[in-house]
Amino acid sequence: MLRCADAFYDPLWIFPAIFYFSMGFYAVKHIQKAMNFLDSLSWKDFISAYILFAAVSVYSFWIYAAHAPFVVTAIKKIIIKLIPMNGGFVLVQFFLTAFLCIVFLMTFGILLRHKLPKIFALVTGSRIIRTS
User: Fold this and answer.
1) Which of 72, 124, 61, 58 is nearest to 100 (CA)?
2) Residue 127 φ/ψ, nearest 5 degrees
3) pLDDT exceeds cutoff 70 at 110
4) How many Å apart are CA 31 and CA 34, to the nearest integer?
5) CA–CA separation, 122 vs 82, rounded Å?
6) Does residue 105 contact residue 71 with C-beta atoms inside 8 Å?
7) Which residue in 41, 68, 62 sits closest to 108, CA to CA?
8) What is d(CA 64, CA 78) in angstroms, rounded to the nearest whole number?
9) Hey, how many other C-beta atoms are within 10 angstroms of the C-beta on 54?
10) Rounded to whole angstroms, how far apart are CA atoms 107 and 118?
11) What is the pLDDT of residues 15-30, one digit of tens each?
């Protein structure tokens, strides 16, 4: 007869094992849902995402060149006044600063490109291909 008394000294060992086993089934079920969603996407979805990213990527150098040091510093000072700087709020402040910096610079870049294209070309080094 096989003796497992030394391996399983706790009579309640089965409960964590069942819990972790069921968590594995739960994860596989949700991974399958994610895979089904990815399978349901068509090539049109990827093309529209590519067009969106291509349109936004025009401003990547503008964001890189214009973000430091004044824009980030100004946005950080505004956020520090609005959000307390303790605990998890530090992480919120970090990501919110990046998000607001990108939104502000994209908006300002679009306006500058359409209203003053020569100045925008000078600032970015004429990195944007002319569409007109």
Assistant:
1) 72
2) -80, -10
3) yes
4) 5
5) 36
6) yes
7) 62
8) 21
9) 9
10) 17
11) 777 777 777 777 777 7
